Amino acid sequence: MSTALKDVKRITTHILQQMKEDGEKIAMITAYDFSMARIYDDAGVDIILVGDSASNVMAGHETTLPITLDQMIYHAQSVVRGVSRALVVVDIPFGYYQSNPTKALESSIRIMKESGGHGVKLEGGAEVKEAVEKIINSGIPVMGHLGLMPQSIYKYGTYSVRAREEEEADKLIADAQVLQEAGCFALVLEKIPASLAEKVSKELHIPVIGIGAGGGCDGQVLVSHDLLGITKDFHPRFLRRYLNLYDTVKTAVGQYVGDVKSGDFPNENEQY
Length: 272
Known about the structure:
Layout (H helix, E strand, L loop, with lengths): L12 H10 L3 E5 L3 H9 L4 E4 L3 H4 L11 H13 L5 E5 L9 H15 L3 E3 L7 H9 L4 E6 L5 H4 L9 H17 L3 E5 L3 H10 L4 E4 L7 E4 L1 H4 L17 H18 L10
Parallel strand pairs: 1-2, 1-8, 2-3, 3-4, 4-5, 5-6, 6-7, 7-8
Helix pairs in contact: 2-4, 4-5, 5-6
């Protein structure tokens, strides 16, 4: 372990920068509730993202677009209560920052004041530069997000790998520089060629976190429900499932149902 994490009680943006400089990889995961956030924090995760992926895995929507700012704040409040060490970053949902920088700042202030989170994340490059600067100038840390941007899925029309072509790759590199210059403390790159992600990671002085962007990034992030195998029908190449909780939980609950139906539960030792 590097000096960056020695005896650290709380991960900060400064610590993350030190980790990059020391060559220590950053582990990031999504969370949406108190109980799971406490487990992830105890496991040593560096960053917990309260992702707008809650729209998918918690609410059952097809995309991230329907989730509201109030709902994101509710999830973030729950996560923050379970965390004592990790840096908690909260996604600003679709529609709450794109229209103008003032609305972006207002949304960010609500997230910070009402949830207790430590920073916000938004998608986009040069087109959101003014919003990023306005938020950062108010004292709120901002994490950027480029590559596949789920809030723009109807624009893309597909979840395929982004920036394969030279023109889009060049724009991504330029946008990454714009976000760094605007003051972002870190950047997420989603579903882009590994060689491009590595190039960006080496060119930027801020940490770059990948998801489906290869091992050359400064860290990795996965959606917790995917990592734990709670989701069942999602099988992208970049996903490594560490558990199969869907079947494990289904089996356990099935046994409970059977025990109730048979009269085996509760037994004499399980009643007063």
